Amino acid sequence: MELLSKTLARVKPSPTIAVTQKAAELKAAGRDVIGLGAGEPDFDTPTNIQEAGIAAIKAGKTKYTAVDGIPELKQAICEKFKRDNGLDYVPAQVSVGTGGKQVLYNALMATLNPGEEVVIPAPYWVSYPDMVLLAGGEPVIAPATLENDFKLTPEALEAAITPKTKWFIFNSPSNPTGAGYGWDELKALTDVLMRHPHVWVLTDDMYEHLAYDDFKFCTPAQVEPALYDRTLTMNGVSKAYAMTGWRIGYAAGPEKLIAAMRKIQSQSTSNPCSISQWAAVEALNGPQDFIPQNNKMFVRRRDLVVDMLNDIDGMICPKPEGAFYVYPSIKGLIGKTSAAGTKITDDEVFATALLEETGVAVVFGAAFGLSPNFRISYATSDDALKEACTRIQGFCAGLT
C-alpha cells in the first residue's frame, strides 16, 4: 500500500514559494541575492491596525471564535462591499478564512465533483489549477496573450466553456501581469457568462485597491447584477493593508455556498486567528488614507522597472494597470547563450541562469501558464529594484 495519495500526485508545490526559498538559501550561503519572487508589500502594517491587534490580545480576545469569522468582522466586510463595490450582503453570506487561498480552496472543495471543469485565464496565479486538481476538478486554461494585453477576450472565454464547466475564475488586477479589466471589458465577459447559466463565477479581487493611473476597479457582480446569485466575490487584507502574515481572506456569496464552505473549514482549520480578525476589523473600518500614499510609491517603482526592462533588446514589458507585478516577454532572447555558457531555451532556464549568474530571483512564466515570460514583484525598495534591473540589463547584454 502506497503512503501518499493519488490526489497528491495531481499537484505540484508552489513555484513562487520555491523561488523565494531558493533565494533565501543562497542568501544564507553568503550570496548577494535580490529576491523579486514574493508578492508581498515591503511596507509595515499600518500602526492603527497593529494597535488593534495588540488591544485584542490585552482584552483577552484570544479564544476560539465562530468557525468562519466573528460577527464584527463579517459586518465590516458587508459594509466594505457596499461602500466600495455597491454590493449588498448580510453576514450570513460572508465567509472569513486564513487568507484568500483558503477561501478559494474551501469553495472549490465544497462544489467540485470529479471531471467538472474550471475555466482559468492564463497567465494565472500559480495555485488556481492545483487547487482545482486537489478538489477533483479539471482546469481548462484559456489564454490571455500579450497581444491582448494579457486580458481574456470574450471569444476565448466562450470557447473554453463546455457543459462540464462549473466555475470561471476571474482575477483583476491580475497576478502575475497586473492587467486590469475596465468596466466595458468586464461587461463583455459577463455577457458571455449570462449565456451559460450553469457556470458560477469565482472572483479574486485581492488587488482591488492597488489600481493606478486612470484605471478604475470593478468586479463581475457589480458590472452584471444578474450574476449576483452565482458569484463568490473574494478579497482580503493581505496586499493593500500590508497584512500578508496576518492571514485573513474573505468572500461573500449565496448562503448555501457559504454554509458549505463553513462545513469544510469546520473540519480543517476552524476559525482564523482571533487577533488577526480584530485587526482586520480595524483595517476595513479605519482610515484608508495610507492606500493612495502607498500606491504612489508602487507607481514610481512600476515605472522604474518597466522603463529599465524595455531598454533591453529582445524584451517587451507592458505597463500594468494594478497589483505590483510586471510580466515581461523574453521571446526575443530565446535561443541565445549567456556569458556563462547557458543556452536560453525557455523562461525557466532564463530565470535559473539569471539567479545563478547575477543573484536576481524572478519567477519563470511557465509557472503561470504562459511563456516565454517571467514575473517580477516590484513590492520592494527603489534601490533594490534599480540594482536588480541593472543586473538583468547586464545579463541580457551578455547574451550572444
Automatic annotation (TrEMBL):
EC category name: transferase
Entry's EC annotation: 2.6.1.-
InterPro entries for the chain: Aminotransferase_I/II_large, AspAT/PAT-like, NHTrfase_class1_PyrdxlP-BS, PyrdxlP-dep_Trfase, PyrdxlP-dep_Trfase_major, PyrdxlP-dep_Trfase_small
Keyword Transferase: yes
Keyword Transferase carried by entry: yes
Residue intervals of the Aminotransferase class I/classII large domain: 32-392
Family assignment from sequence similarity: Belongs to the class-I pyridoxal-phosphate-dependent aminotransferase family.
The entry's keywords: Aminotransferase, Pyridoxal phosphate, Transferase
The reaction(s) this protein catalyses: L-aspartate + 2-oxoglutarate = oxaloacetate + L-glutamate
Protein name: Aminotransferase
PROSITE patterns per record: AA_TRANSFER_CLASS_1
